[in-house]
Specification:
This protein is α/β, with parallel strands linked by helices and 263 residues long. 52% of the residues lie in helices and 15% in strands. It has one domain. It has a 6-stranded parallel beta sheet with strand order 4-3-8-7-5-6, with helices on both faces.
Length: 263
């Protein structure tokens, strides 16, 4: 049995054909730390409603996400669906930005290096400074923003070499969904660290974008906060993804009994 098989990965449940982990911050963090301690590369995603519905609609993306070790329920609606359909008993969602915060705190405590990959040069530079200010013991062993175009084979190989040479235990990937998950999946056999896709966390912690107030997060309204900030870019995204999610959830509730709680 390989080291990967001895790690207690959180159980997954089927949400409209997508395997989503029924997990908490503590459980997911412990699984990642097991992988780090054993030197096992792993993939972690955080799917809100938009990411989930992208996987439902795009079979190639769904197949990639199915190979992730953790697909955390990012956002209250996904958690509510797991609790309603499976009796998962999850006390809260597992947001990418909060998970990044907790993992950085653990990395600082244990002396582990982290690598920041994504966004724009100015954003990722501010993110590095903000994390080092918040966690003085944190070792940010590398940071970079890739160009807004496909990388050449040479550029891609050089980026992978930089990450591996840095000795990072964790690579935070902030390219936006589904680009970040696709990147992590395509590099699963080449990047030796645990890759954690964290969505808009780069923008939040760098101060580039404001995070939704906690009361909105708790009520599943984070999407509304972001929509009010970027109505043109996000309007259609949330219209189709939220509507499709509600329709699929209603259909499942009407047509079948609640499934057994995952173990």
């Amino acid at each position: 049995m390989g080291d990967r098989d001895t790690i207690r990965w959180p159980p997954k449940c089927d949400l409209f054909g997508v395997q989503v982990s029924c997990t908490t911050y503590g459980e997911a963090l412990e699984a990642v730390m097991q992988a780090v301690r054993r030197g096992v590369p792993a993939l972690v995603a955080h799917l809100p409603v938009h990411g989930l519905m992208t996987a439902v609609r795009d079979s190639s993306f769904r197949q990639a996400v199915s190979d992730f070790d953790i697909v955390a329920p990012d956002g209250q609606p996904v958690r509510w669906a797991l609790n309603r359909l499976y009796g998962a008993g999850l006390p809260g969602s597992v947001r990418g930005s909060e998970f990044m915060h907790r993992l950085c705190a653990r990395a600082a405590q244990d002396g582990l290096g982290v690598y920041l990959y994504g966004s724009r040069p100015d954003v990722v530079a501010r993110l590095k400074a903000a994390l080092e200010e918040r966690f003085p013991a944190l070792r940010v062993v590398g940071h970079e923003a890739p160009p807004f175009r496909p990388l050449t084979a040479e550029e891609d190989a050089a980026a992978v070499e930089r990450m591996n040479r840095s000795g990072a235990a964790v690579v935070f990937v902030g390219l936006g969904c589904p680009k970040q998950e696709t990147f992590a999946y395509e590099h699963r056999d080449r990047i030796r660290a645990v890759q954690v896709c964290v969505g808009a966390a780069f923008e939040f912690y760098s101060g580039h974008k404001a995070m939704a107030p906690r009361w909105m997060q708790q009520r599943g309204l984070e999407w509304l906060h972001r929509l009010l900030q970027e109505p043109r870019r996000l309007g259609w995204r949330y219209l189709w993804s939220n509507t499709a999610f509600l329709c699929l959830l209603a259909a499942r509730l009407l047509t079948g009994p609640r499934a057994a709680r995952p173990r």
